[in-house]
Design goal:
The protein is α+β, with helices and mostly antiparallel strands. Helix content is 21%, strand content 30%.
């Protein structure tokens, strides 16, 4: 396994989403907070093409497909394990749907943002600028998934690294 993929699988993904996706993208944190995944590890994202999205989350971000939520109730869905305790559910958007997430990023945490951003660029992910330091001391960089979803990478606060299983 390459070191970039190791970073992705072991320490890259603890999801936090800062998205107001409404009914179209269904991000629902368990504690009912509007759109923050700081303390939760689940996001549901509508995508225009399932195969493309699964390939991006699996090949680029290192997530592992674990199957549809339920063939009976969610035939157009795919669950992906994205690191310790993190799950992304991809659902197929209805044809012609306007995807609400275009203006709202999905925010992903990384223990080594610079190395993660470099690895993603090497895999052809479009970055919007270079990593920048925030007032909090954390670093962030914005990326674009192949179908237009904005992905915001942000470094973990000091002392909050993900432990490898």
């Amino acid at each position: 396994m390459s070191s970039g993929l190791y970073i992705m699988k072991k320490s890259f993904l603890t999801l936090l989403a800062m998205v107001s996706l409404g009914a179209l993208a269904g991000v629902v944190p368990p504690d009912g907070r509007a759109a923050t995944f700081q303390d939760s590890d689940y996001a549901s994202i509508e995508v225009p093409e399932m195969a493309q999205a699964v390939q991006f989350f699996a090949d680029v971000l290192g997530c592992e497909p674990i199957g549809p939520r339920s063939e009976a109730t969610s035939p157009g869905s795919m669950l992906l394990a994205c690191g310790p305790g993190s799950v992304v559910e991809l659902t197929t958007a209805p044809a012609g749907a306007v995807l609400a997430w275009r203006d709202h990023p999905i925010q992903l945490r990384s223990d080594d943002l610079v190395a993660t951003a470099r690895s993603l660029r090497q895999k052809g992910v479009n970055a919007l600028g270079k990593p920048r330091r925030l007032a909090s001391g954390q670093t962030e960089v914005d990326l674009i998934a192949p179908w237009g979803l904005r992905v915001e990478l942000i470094s973990r606060p000091a002392g909050t690294r993900i432990a490898a299983p």
